[in-house]
Amino acid sequence: xxxxxxxxxxxxxxxxxxxxxxxxxxxxxxxxxxxxxxxxxxxxxxxxxxxxxxxxxxxxxxxxxxxxxxxxxxxxxxxxxxxxxxxxxxxxxxxxxxxxxxxxxxxxxxxxxxxxxxxxxxxxxxxxxxxxxxxxxxxxxxxxxxxxxxxxxxxxxxxxxxxxxxxxxxxxxxxxxxxxxxxxxxxxxxxxxxxxxxxxxxxxxxxxxxxxxxxxxxxxxxxxxxxxxxxxxxxxxxxxxxxxxxxxxxxxxxxxxxxxxxxxxxxxxxxxxxxxxxxxxxxxxxxxxxxxxxxxxxxxxxxxxxxxxxxxxxxxxxxxxxxxxxxxxxxxxxxxxxxxxxx
Length: 343
Description:
The protein is α+β, with helices and mostly antiparallel strands and 343 residues long. It folds into 3 domains: 7-80, Winged helix-like DNA-binding domain superfamily/Winged helix DNA-binding domain (Arc Repressor Mutant, subunit A, Orthogonal Bundle), CATH 1.10.10.10; 116-266, Endonuclease Chain A (Endonuclease, Chain A, 2-Layer Sandwich); 285-340, Arc Repressor Mutant, subunit A (Orthogonal Bundle), CATH 1.10.10. 52% of the residues lie in helices and 13% in strands. It has 13 helices and 10 strands. The N and C termini lie far apart (57 Å).
């Protein structure tokens, strides 16, 4: 049988040997790991620091540590999948850095400009400010800005609801950003809570590492990349007119400060309550949170605000949990929840 190894995925032979040993044994305490490494050193293997080995295996996704402090192996399929994703991500970052420094995009844009049909503007990468007219040109500008984003992406959605077309277009850009581990923060208007497809997409982004908040306050439309470039509408009441791209450090800093103020006033994306608890006799996290707020908030409006959902949605969940508990009123619901140990 051919003995394959993991060197092509960035795992050295010593770490692989410990991982294989973990697979055979099922797990090691810290002292057992130290003993195994000491035995290996006596048998002629390279002497290794147990803490360093522990750190490398967990960082590589080959092992995890239990609450009891036991180092256990990740299943081979999942471990290899994680190594492949890491290798692909590293290659992608290297290629994008190469592209960024090569000038190839400017060269290709110059070719496009020679036959420009007037429908799409070319970004001037050296301009402090630039007017970009029409949604086709704005989308092209967003594509280019996000392609070069390296550290942070800040966006707002004053309308809150994303159309299927917008989600389809955004998914490509957002996935590209998140694959590069760019820190993404997105602010959505509260109307998003009433649109299932929008919420499904927001939770999809959150599962991939994006940070999303819901705002009940008016939002200004902003897209800011790496705190060095920002897009704002030419006319906030008619965004189809186009946008202003600015790279002016003072203006960008002011827009970042505006985003941070709006972010502080917003609420975290609410939990997905459609997923049923594995055990009907146990409350899920959302139900516990709802019951706690129900027993402390004097008004539905206050409770809804604390959960980051609409009042109508809040009342729907209250009615649902009362039915689950078999309670005829909210006071009785709190008592029954305490009896079950839910709060």
